[in-house]
Automatic annotation (TrEMBL):
It holds the Pfam family ABC_tran. It comes from Amorphus orientalis. Keywords: Amino-acid transport, ATP-binding, Nucleotide-binding, Transport. One of its GO terms (molecular function) is ATP hydrolysis activity. GO terms for biological process: L-amino acid transport. InterPro entries: AAA+_ATPase (IPR003593), ABC_branched_ATPase_LivF/BraG (IPR030660), ABC_transporter-like_ATP-bd (IPR003439), ABC_transporter-like_CS (IPR017871), BCAA_Transport_ATP-bd_LivF (IPR052156), P-loop_NTPase (IPR027417). Residues 2-235 form the ABC transporter domain. This is Branched-chain amino acid transport system ATP-binding protein. Signal peptide: none annotated. Belongs to the ABC transporter superfamily. The keyword Transport applies. The keyword Transcription does not apply. It comes from the Bacteria.
Amino acid sequence: MLRIEDLRSGYGRIEALHGITIEVNAGEIVTLVGGNGAGKTTLLKAVSGVQPVSGGRITFEGADITQATPHKRVALGISQSPEGRQIFGPLSVEDNLRLGAYRSSQGSAAVEADLQKIYAMFPILAERRKNPAGGLSGGQQQMLAIGRALMSRPRLLLLDEPSMGLAPILVDQILETIASLRDQGVTVFLVEQNAFAALSIADRGYVIETGEIAKEGTGKDLIADPAVREAYLGV
Ligand SMILES: Nc1ncnc2c1ncn2[C@@H]1O[C@H](COP(=O)(O)OP(=O)(O)OP(=O)(O)O)[C@@H](O)[C@H]1O
């Protein structure tokens, strides 16, 4: 579904990704783990089109999207829930969700139906739908960020650190939600510092170290790998 080949990207003259090659197949959860500053966010942003690339290629369902605008990628079926959630605090919960469908070519009845699906998935968002999103707890804001991304009906969902800053019980809930999205047919490319939990729900995973892919394998294999365990799983 998504193929990233020899991708290079950076900031000014500093290269952050030194030739990344990754594949995400339809129906998979693929997890990318790595330390601080390894290049995870840069890679996800390159896939959603908000980070320029200096070399290599990104294809989505066979189409070359390396130079496509972010809104074109959304229209093709890619959506990102960004690091730090980036919700619009003064806007209501519902308006944040509606913004996810801002580029949608669906009619308003379809947007309403999608809203109801998100509310069924995250009932607390329905309860708070008229409230300013900035008043939600961290976990609720994360649900909102995922819900907003789902409002564009993505076939590929990019999630950057969805468990960041959440209590362990909420981390489990968010990861369960991600697994259920996969079961509903959404393909997921997941970036996480919370490596054990994220690899546990992954079909496959990659380890990124200073802008290069150091390892790849099934989620199970990576969890069992002694070097991965020592560096990322704290065991
Ligand atoms: N806006 C920026 N300007 C300059 N350098 C940047 C910028 N954003 C990231 N970098 C650098 O690019 C490299 C990769 O950063 P990136 O944020 O992609 O890593 P990451 O793996 O997502 O890290 P973290 O887990 O801390 O979010 C790092 O060396 C970082 O310092």
